[in-house]
Amino acid sequence: MSNSIPRPVPPPPSVQFTHRTVAASAAEAIRLKIVEGRLRDGEPLRQDLLAAEFGISRTPIREALVQLEAEGLVRIEPHKGAVVASASLDSIEETFELREVLEPMLLRRSAPHLTEDDYRQIDAVLQEYSDELRDQNVKRWGELNTRLHAMLYARAQRPQTQAIVDKLLLASDRYTRLQLLLTAGLERAEREHAEMVALCRTGRYDDAAEALAQHIRAVKEALVAFVAKQQR
Question: pLDDT value at position 180?
C-alpha cells in the first residue's frame, strides 16, 4: 500500500474554456460599444460598472480590457484604470500604413489558391455587404468588411502575418465605420471590393494586390483629412 500523497486532479478543460468564453464575450460587447461610438474617446471603463452591466465578475472584464488594449481600442493607465483610446491621427496613419504593407502581401499569396467554393462564399459576403450599406446598417459594416478581407487572405499560409492583420483589422474597425459613414465612402468601398475580387478571379493577382493597397491608402487619406478637420 503506497503512502504517497495523491496528486491534485486538474479541473476539466470545460471550466477554463467557459471562463475564456466569458472574457471573449465581454471583449466583444465592449468593442462593439467603442466602434459604434457609444463609448467616446477618453471615456473611463469602470470594471465594476461593466461587470454589473453584463452580470459577470470583474475578472473576465479585466481580461477583456487587456485584450482590447492589445487591439488599440483601450488604454490602461497606471493608478487610473482603463479608458477608451483616442482615435489620433498618428494611430490612424500607423494602423493603415501597416495594413497597406501586409495585406497586399497576403493577398498575393492567397489569391492563386482560392477555390470556386471560396469565391461563392466571398460573393455572398459581397452581396450582404452591399445590402447592409444600402440599408445604412452601420453595425454590420465593420464586421462584414473584416470578414471579406479575411476570406481573401485565408489561403496565404502565413499564420503569423495573418494574426497581425487580424489585430489591425479589429483596430481599424471603428475607423472603417467612421470613413464609410462620414466621408461618402459607401459606393467607393462597394466598387473597390468587387474590383479586387474580379481581379483575383481572373488571375490578375498583382493588379488585385495593387488595387487593395490603393483601397487601404484611400481610406487612410479620407480619415486623416476628416479627423484633422475636426481637430482644427
Answer: 67
- R_g (Cα) of the chain, nearest Å: 21
DSSP code at position 1: -
Residue 224 identity (one-letter amino acid): V
Task: Calculate mean pLDDT across residues 77-86.
Answer: 86
The percent of the chain in helix, strand and coil, each rounded to the nearest 5, is 75, 5, 20
> CB of 84 within 8 A of CB of 73?
yes
From CA 192, how far away is CA 181, in angstroms rounded? 16
What is the distance of C-alpha 159 from the center of its chain? 16
Asked whether the beta carbons of 63 and 194 are under 8 A apart, the reply is no
The CATH number for 147's domain is 1.20.120.530
Structural contact between residues 74 and 84, judged by C-beta atoms closer than 8 angstroms:
yes
Q: What is the pTM for the complete model shown?
A: 0.69
Work out how many domains the chain is built from and give that number. Answer: 2
Give residue 179's domain range: 89-231
- Cα distance between residue 178 and residue 181, in whole Å: 5
At 181 the pLDDT is 63
Give 50-107 as a DSSP string: HHHHHTS-HHHHHHHHHHHHHTTSEEEETTTEEEEPP--HHHHHHHHHHHHHHHHHHH
* Strand partners for 76: 82
C-alpha dihedral sign at 116, 215, 168, 50: negative
Q: In the predicted model, is pLDDT for residue 28 greater than 90? A: no
Query: Is residue 58 located within the same domain as residue 102?
Result: no
